[in-house]
Specification:
The chain is of the alpha+beta class. 50% of the residues lie in helices and 21% in strands. The protein has two domains: 54 residues; 93 residues, no CATH class. A hairpin with a 3-residue loop joins β2 and β3. This is Histidyl-tRNA synthetase.
Length: 157
């Protein structure tokens, strides 16, 4: 398995797609029920293949990821050729960026000495989707990139 198995909730949400996937494998509903009972390991493999296909589709479209912790923000822009990072570090120990109050403090004080910025970029390895997935495994979430774009404008000025 290249990525990770979809959760039960994700699989339920993608039930119609999974049925289509099984149909492309020429597996009917009755055959699927039989497979789960008689050869559960084969059924598990089918779920893993389906999960990887879904992840491939999602990862190929991802452009922005965010990983926000108590005092750090790691904002990624995943371009065609490289991964760009905008990193923010808060030096005020009383601030938690994950809270509304903490993030409000940051928006008011983003130019203060209590905030450090770092930008970096890195070329993808052999498989850009695997690189993206590694960032997600570390806690990042897929976003539309509004925060990254806001920062990009601040950094440029």
């Amino acid at each position: 398995m290249k990525y990770r198995r979809l959760t039960k909730e994700q699989l339920e949400e993608l039930h119609p797609e999974f049925i289509n996937f099984l149909a492309t494998q020429s597996i009917t509903a009755d055959e699927w029920d039989n497979l789960k009972k008689e050869k559960p390991e084969v059924a598990e493999e089918e779920i893993d293949v389906f999960s990887d296909l879904i992840w491939e589709g999602v990862l190929s479209k991802v452009e922005y990821l965010e990983n926000i912790s108590e005092r750090h923000m790691h904002l990624f822009h995943l371009t065609e050729k490289e991964m760009k990072l905008l990193s923010v570090k808060i030096m005020n120990p009383e601030i938690d960026l994950r809270t509304e109050v903490g993030f409000g403090w940051f928006k008011r004080n983003y130019q203060s000495d209590f905030v450090e910025y770092l930008t970096a970029s890195k070329a993808y390895g052999e498989d850009k989707n695997v690189d993206k997935f590694e960032i997600i495994k570390q806690g990042a979430v897929i976003t539309k990139g509004e925060l990254y774009q806001w920062f990009e404008q601040i950094v440029e000025h």
